Amino acid sequence: MAAGAAEAAVAAVEEVGSAGQFEELLRLKAKSLLVVHFWAPWAPQCAQMNEVMAELAKELPQVSFVKLEAEGVPEVSEKYEISSVPTFLFFKNSQKIDRLDGAHAPELTKKVQRHASSGSFLPSANEHLKEDLNLRLKKLTHAAPCMLFMKGTPQEPRCGFSKQMVEILHKHNIQFSSFDIFSDEEVRQGLKAYSSWPTYPQLYVSGELIGGLDIIKLEASEELDTICPKAPKLEERLKVLTNKASVMLFMKGNKQEAKCGFSKQILEILNSTGVEYETFDILEDEEVRQGLKAYSNWPTYPQLYVKGELVGGLDIVKELKENGELLPILRGEN
After folding, report:
1. Can you say how many angstroms the Cα of residue 61 is from the centroid of all Cα atoms in its chain?
2. What does the pLDDT read at residue 323?
C-alpha cells in the first residue's frame, strides 16, 4: 500500500479523547452503525486490529469507526466494563447492540458486515429474527462434534468455571472447539433460551446439550470418555496440517486477505509462480501458532512447507526466487 493510501485509510478511523467527545459522537452517529475500538498503545495486537478497522472503513464507508484509548478515557471504559484490550463495542441508535473481546479479525469483519447490512428492524420482524437466530445457534452447536460455549477462549478463559471446564476436557484429552460468548451478545443471550440452560459454560456433543460444569464433573470419570471424541496429539495434528497440500503456507490471514506485510509479500511471490497452494491462518488457532514454532524450530511467520518439509520464511523464499530455485522446489523437483 502506498504511503498516501495508508494515511487515507487511517484517517477514516476517528480518535476519541474524552468522555464528552464520545457521548457527542454517539449522538451524531445515532443513525448509522458505530464501531468503537477500546485499545492501548502498548498492545501490539491493538495496532494490528487498527489496521483491520482501517481496511473495513475503506470497504464500508456507511459505517463509522472510532478508536478510544481505554486507559486514557477511564470513565467510558468503566461504564462499558472494558477489562482488556482490544475490545470492540457496536452501537446503533446510541445503544450498545454487540461486543467483541480480543483480537479476532475474522469475527470483527463478520460482525461489522452483519450489523451493517441488518439496518433498523421493525418490531414485526421479531419472529423472523428469532427464527434466524435459532438457525444460527443450531449451526453453532453442530459446528464441531464437541462444542464448548464459554467465557473467553481455551487459551485465556475469562471465568473460573470456564477454566475448570477446559482443564477437565484437556485432562481427558477431549477434542473440542469453542465459542467465546463474550464475542457475541446475541448468541450469549439466545443460547440460554435455545438450550433452556441459564448459565455458562455449556458443552454440546453432536448438537445436544450435555450440561454445564457440575454435570461434566459428575460425568468426567467414564462417560465423558465415551461420548466425546479424543483429540489427536499436537505433533500428529501438525504433521497432518503440514501435509494437507503439496504446498502449504502458514501465515497471518489467508489467500484472500493477508494480515501482515510479510504474509502479503510471500502471497505475491507464490501467486506469481502459478503453483497451487493452500494456506492456514495461524491467527485462528493459538495452539498451532505456538506449536508449529517448536515443531519446525522456526520462530516466525510466515512458514512455507512443501510435501510436509519446511522450506523457510519470507527471506529464504525471496532468495530462492532470485536464484531461480523456487519453482523446482514448489513442484517437488528438488
Report:
1. 23
2. 93
Please give the pLDDT value at position 19.
92
Q: Distance (Å, rounded) from C-alpha 21 to C-alpha 23?
A: 6
Banded pLDDT at 81 (limits 50, 70, 90): confident
Residue 293 has pLDDT above 80, yes or no: yes
144 or 228, which is more confident: 144
CA distance 48 to 160: 29
Q: How far apart are CA 157 and CA 286, in angstroms?
A: 13
HEC states along the chain? CCHHHHHHHHHCEEEECCHHHHHHHHHHCCCCCEEEEEECCCCHHHHHHHHHHHHHHHHCCCCEEEEEECCCCHHHHHHCCCCCCCEEEEEECCEEEEEEECCCHHHHHHHHHHHHHHCCCCHHHHHHHHHHHHHHHHHHHCCCCEEEEECECCCCECCHHHHHHHHHHHHCCECCEEEEHHHCHHHHHHHHHHHCCCCCCEEEECCEEEECHHHHHHHCCCHHHHHCCECCCHHHHHHHHHCCCCEEEEECECCCCECCHHHHHHHHHHHHHCCCCEEEEHHHCHHHHHHHHHHHCCCCCCEEEECCEEEECHHHHHHHHHCCCHHHHHCCCC
Nearest-angstrom CA–CA distance, 74 and 91: 19
Pairwise CA distance, residues 287 & 190, whole Å = 29
pLDDT digits (tens, 9 = 90+) for 3-57: 444 334 344 789 999 999 999 999 888 888 999 999 998 888 888 898 889 888 8
Average pLDDT, the chain: 85
**pTM exceeds 0.85:** no
Quick check: 254 and 311 in contact, CB under 8 A?
no
Q: How many other C-beta atoms are found inside a 10 Å radius of the C-beta of residue 180? A: 24
For the beta carbon of residue 267, count every other beta carbon within 10 angstroms. Answer: 21
81-89 average pLDDT score: 88
